[in-house]
Hints:
Elements: H1 2-30, H2 37-53, H3 59-86, H4 94-114, E1 129-131, E2 136-138, H5 139-161, H6 163-173, H7 175-180, H8 185-211, H9 218-233, H10 238-257, H11 264-278
Antiparallel strand pairs: 1-2
Helix pairs in contact: 1-5, 1-8, 1-9, 1-10, 2-3, 2-4, 2-8, 2-9, 3-4, 3-8, 5-6, 5-8, 6-8, 9-10, 10-11
Amino acid sequence: xxxQQVVNGLTLGSTYAVIALGYTLIFGVLNxxxxxxxxxxxxxxxxxxxLVTKFNxxxxxxxxxxxxxxAALGYLLERVALRPLRRKEVSHLAPLISTIxxxxxxxxxxLKVFGPQAQSFPPVFSGQLLDLGVFKIxxxxxxxxxxxxxxxxxxxxxxxxxxAGKSIRATAExxxxxxxLGVDTRKVIVMTVMLASGLGAVAGVLxxxxxNAVEPTMGITMGFKGLAVxxxxxxxxxxxxxxxxxxxxxxxxxxxxxxxxxxxDAVAFGLIMVLLFVRPQGLFGSSTPQGGR
Length: 293
């Protein structure tokens, strides 16, 4: 029973971690919270669903399609809602308000295009259970775990070892210094927002598979949980986002298994509050944001 809940918690938590990585990348580089990330996550879920149900594309193709769509939305977000504000002397709250406006627009657009009803992936994606003795795991859970952890490991390696990844880390450390050292910070910012949005869209498909439900308002709840993980792990910290997402997922699953499901979110966020009382900067945070680490 215990191992079963751990597996379920890791499956859920890995999706939270992928969502939080998008928040973390943008916060690390731009020092803002992208409130439209949850809605990009939701659009990605719908794109994946449509590719599977309308065009009979496999799940890998659906994930790739969702990532491309998310990246395109990220480019438009940076170009329309963020870049004009960076050129002016505006309050640090201006980008926050701008991304809130984008989130409202995307949710309204989804309601108009897809309707308010929840939609599900075909029954074939419900998956059969694989009995390993001490716990059971479904095919969908295996896919979610493999893709989530694969993305996390790949992103970690890419940021640490590639020229583009090092440019993101340098920009996150100090955008002015990075520019003086020859880094094209404008391109880095665009790349970061596109990458973060692409990850969010993939997470949308994974969550849609996990809960077998996709709806226009799903981005609100999942977006807040991604923000919670961002704070729990440490603002702008990649490792913190990964570990924080797994902790939140396990806490939620155990609160349902050994308590009342109605207190699921309360228990999970209560745990975050307790941890932040002990370590206000988050599990892997420092007194100043260290993006890209």
